[in-house]
Amino acid sequence: xxxxxxxxxxxxxxxxxxxxxxxxxxxxxxxxxxxxxxxxxxxxxxxxxxxxxxxxxxxxxxxxxxxxxxxxxxxxxxxxxxxxxxxxxxxxxxxxxxxxxxxxxxxxxxxxxxxxxxxxxxxxxxxxxxxxxxxxxxxxxxxxxxxxxxxxxx
Length: 154
Fold this sequence. Notes:
Elements: H1 2-7, H2 12-28, H3 41-56, H4 63-70, H5 74-87, H6 96-117
Helix pairs in contact: 2-3, 2-6, 3-4, 3-5, 4-5
Pfam families: Cyclin
GO molecular function, one term: protein kinase binding
Keywords: Cell cycle, Cell division
């Protein structure tokens, strides 16, 4: 992810949108060629960011550039992009409210990471939940440890 962030040259909003796309992909339950393991997670990440960049930003690098950033071939990048788009049902639009909800989840996770990195700042803060689930149909962000809900850790 650090390599993608360093070389993708996209707006910060693209990472929020990519996160929402990954959540949609998980909710739809279709992964196709995007089977995820420790050796292929970068393929899923670069594909989600590529889709977000193309949808959100006015100017972006081409698929060849993103393939090099992700360490994959251009034909594979093209295939993953198409498979990803089918996986999310070509549903790339996010309402401002949904975008705000995903921003809030990511900001919360960043705060949690900062608190974990500096435990003295969290003294007396009490216990907190590590899992956040977000439904685009809800009006507010939902936090739950229920095993029936899809979870995505960025």
